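Model it.
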Amino acid sequence: MMGGFNLREIMDSARTFRNQRGGGGGDKNSPPPGSPPCSSSYSTSSSSSSSSSPSSSLLSASKTRMTVVQLPPEILAHVFSFLSGRDICSAALTCKLFHEMSRIDRLWQDMAFKEFGIVLFPGQIPSYMQMYAHVIYKYRHLYGLWQPDITHYGGLVQVKFEEGKIVAYEWRVPCDPNYLDPLRRKEIFSIGLSNDGQVRHLCLGGFRGPHKCQISVRSSSNFCSKCDVQESHTHPQSTDEEYREWLREETCNISRFFHPQNQSLSFFKFLLFKQYKCCYEYNRLSIPRPRPQAIIQPGIFKGTYGDHGLELVMLAYEEDGYTVKAKKITGDQNVPANKVTFRADLRYSLILNEQQQMDMDMLVAMRRSSSSVLPENLPAQPFLLPQNCMERGVYVPNQCKARFSGFGQIAGYGFTNSSYTPGHWIVFSEDLFGFLWLSLQSFSMYHRVKDPIY
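Modeled.
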């Protein structure tokens, strides 16, 4: 049964192994001459019998001395099932018997589930042991979420094991401005075994199908990928067609980029990506732990950023428990990835009437004052956008759970002259919040990522 050890099948494999060795007599299970001795006795007594079979020796264990190598293969297989994969490999170096026991293939099928939660189905791969040793364990540090180190822009990449191989997915924001839609997923590389048991690294991007690449794991928090066939990423017709295809994939909507400002932003991004020549470095991305009684739980959100389109941010709480901040996972030429986009202080809550909410000048002139009411005890209140505030026609609720004073980060091109400007952080629900940029007279909406990335 999957979800635990296939102990019955492992022991069946061990019995087959015993039959192939000729019935499992004591001498046959002994290590060959010159092999290191295996561990000592299973039980001790003053008498011994070298002619007894393993099963009879086990039944008379109280009267005989039995070594580990005299145990039936079924029992040894059961013992091995409690070891880690690394311990099994160490045991295999001690003697010929343990080496042969370590090659029971079903043992490694269960080891993949026990250690990594990976289910290997019959027929998917030529050998469970080879898959575990050369793919699952060797590349164990790759599993999880990663951020490519791309100037300004960053990104979100998930590496997981599925359908008999390791696959890396790039998760892209929805088509702008549909921030409530799911993320878009694209395969970028895979690691698996060929039919002859060789490890294959495949780049899955470009215009000419899968092709070779290199994956180098530097540490548990850093790795890099490099495409070996860069011409596969060049459009067969022209650079113009390559740019148009990139636009379709990046934005879903080419028409909005006919505006000169949008054309400039997108073309700069296109040229920058081409300079990387499909060679990227990735840093591990960690998700903050849930916080009891938080006004909204931390996590990854999709947000609206004007002409820059949609971007991904990580919402987290500072150690003091009062400060919440959003850091960019994907960024732009003004405020790049890994920079804080806004922060708010939960000690400064706001309860405003309709007149105060509608008047931008009144909001800007409003002084911050601390509140003694805990964030989770704040009353719900109506929400209205100020007059002449840009929100790009996205869905905005008319009621919020809480509103707090905060500061949003703005900057010039290339993250020059960066500064924090006053704003309001508005929590609508567990999955929805907004940020009002007072000096910019702009409003951003954010929605929690619910795709299977965690």
